[in-house]
Amino acid sequence: MEMDRMDENDWKYHEEGNKSLVVCHVQHCRVLRLLKYPAEDSENPPQTAEQAFRQIQNIVDFTSNVMSRLLGDKFVHSGEVVRLPLEFVRQLSIKIQHQRPAWRCDKVMDIYSGCALCLPNLTTPTQYQPTATPPICIEIKPKWGFLPSSKHVSRDIKTRVCRYCMHQHYKVANGKWKRRSLYCPLDLFSGNRQRMHFAIRHLIEEPQNNFKVFKGGQCIYSSKEGSEGSPDMNALLHHLRPYFLRGNNRVNGHMTAKAVLNDFIQVLVNALLSPAGGDGGPLTHRAPEGRSFCEASLFSNERVRHGSQGLPSSSVLSRILQTQMLDALDIEGLYPLYCRVEQHLQDFPKDRTRLQIDGPYDQNFLENVQKSSMEDDGSVEYAAAKVHQYRIAMTAKDCSIMAALVPSVKEEDDDEGLSSQKHLRDFRPQAFSSSVSILDLDPKPLDSIPRQLRLDQKIVACYLRTGGALPMGSLPLLPNFIAAAEREDRTLLFQPA
User: Fold this and answer.
1) What does this gene product do (predicted)?
2) DSSP state letter for 216
3) Which residues contact 467 (CB under 8 A, 6 or more apart)?
């Protein structure tokens, strides 16, 4: 990018999270990620331009030197820090303000530092040949994929019901979401195709902030926080149908809603299980730590008694899960070690640098984390290493996966010469190539640990208080949708000529 020729009209609003806002270039496959501040700080930024630069550089260093090593560099894009003209940033902020969701406007875009993180736009992959149908990109926040088995866990329910399922009850009770998602991360991370299909089906049903679909760089399916209605799944089916011309349940050249969803989920599962996010590979089994089923999941474990269980060791889900499991103590076991570190820093504030509390996130940082002793020797070094392991695990628990599904050019060419009879006999989903990336890999701040403990206590207390029950009207609506969609299919199929 030529910084002296930046034009706000070349960029458009893409999305935003709690701490940053993303804009994408209208022609090139690049995005800029800019920091956000509380609205009350809009006139007096909370940090200098150099501090903002350092904050973003820390994200790059942590991503490239820590998370990339643990998750695999084939999945991770570190990006680079760029300095932008301030006038460009200010005009860009004005241009996109009306496009931002109202519930995100309690924070404003940083218009003072001129610093941003430049990354590839993963919703518009460039490494593919142009086809009649552009790539479909799916963003998933998989969340926590295991049950804690730490001796420090004080409530047995935490070893039987996963954090995500309990958190759903807390969010519905507090009005953040109107309906509970029936998605369970343990099903997705199981490696069993039936359970994974079940999990993704429920992500589609109630996506919340955890599932989005992009086509040609545009978000075509997502959910808005606090929304009363469900996302438009008929529109999603309309977009997906051309991608699955070969599939099951075709009648007179028509494909049912159920078949479209099944084929879409099957292709997505293939991408998530692929060792390279590409064309698949042998399944390897892992020995699960603790229980591999969540009691809150609606999937019956009787259905997979004879099914395969486990993830390919180099698949994206396996790498994320192993990194999440660096949290071996649970927040309840970690918090006393955090207090040990905090007390030491109060007594010896200069040791903050030696213990790399705020970085630098270099090779030395990762080595200290990886060679940490299993036994607590009472030292602040042991405590700091465990705190760092927990922070890394929390990043992996909150990351996102972007899977790009690209229709095979050869299949599209072959289709042109096939008869309708050949189409009806062929029950394979259309061939896709895929690429998988991991994003949202920022380091979690040290001072977030007390908040994590309080949140953990609130979530567990809410679940125990309600007994896992939810108010009327808080269950998802997909079964009704599928029934309606299939009725519509039958109407289309059997209308008189």
Assistant:
1) Phosphorylates Ins(1,3,4,5,6)P5 at position 2 to form Ins(1,2,3,4,5,6)P6 (InsP6 or phytate).
2) T
3) none
Per the rule left: phi > 0, alpha: psi between -120 and 50, beta: everything else, 72 is left
DSSP letter (8 states) at residue 28: S
pLDDT digits (tens, 9 = 90+) for 266-319: 999 999 999 864 433 444 444 344 468 999 999 876 665 555 568 998 899 999
Question: Count of CB atoms within 10 A of residue 483's CB?
Answer: 11
| Residue carrying structure tokens 């804690």 | 148
- Cα distances (Å, whole numbers) of residue 486 to 68, 254, 389, 457: 44, 12, 48, 43
Listed by start position, the domains of the chain span 3-120, 136-324+396-489
In CATH, the architecture of 3-120 is 2-Layer Sandwich (3.30)
Q: For residue 456, what are its two tokens?
A: 């953990």
- What number of CA atoms fall less than 13 Å from residue 269's CA on the CB side? 25
For 181, the token pair is: 């998602």
pLDDT in tens, 182-215: 999 999 999 999 999 999 999 999 999 899 999 9
In this structure, the chain runs to a length of: 497
What Å distances lie between residue 418 and 251, 260, 413, 415, 426, CA to CA?
17, 20, 10, 5, 11
230-273 pLDDT per residue, tens = 788 889 999 999 888 654 445 445 678 888 999 999 999 999 99
- The residues facing 454 across adjacent strands are none
The Cα angle at residue 281 between residues 424 and 286, in degrees rounded to 5: 125
SS3 488: helix
What's the CA gap between 134 and 407, in Å, rounded? 8
| Distance from C-alpha of 30 to C-alpha of 435, rounded to nearest angstrom | 17
With tokens 């040791």, the residue in question is: 351
pLDDT value at residue 205:
92
Q: What end-to-end distance do the CA atoms of the chain give, in Å?
A: 57
Side-chain half-sphere exposure of 197, counting CA atoms within 13 A: 15
C-alpha distances out from residue 493 to 250, 256, 261, 272, 421, Å:
10, 9, 18, 34, 17
Which residue(s) pair with 80 in the sheet? 118
Gyration radius of the chain's alpha carbons:
24
Of 239, 212, 29, residue with least CA distance to 127: 29
Consecutive sets of 10 residues in the chain, 497 residues long: mean pLDDT of each?
Answer: 81 91 93 93 85 96 96 94 96 94 90 95 74 85 95 95 96 89 95 94 93 92 73 89 66 73 94 68 42 86 63 93 96 98 97 95 93 91 97 98 84 44 42 90 96 97 83 54 48 38
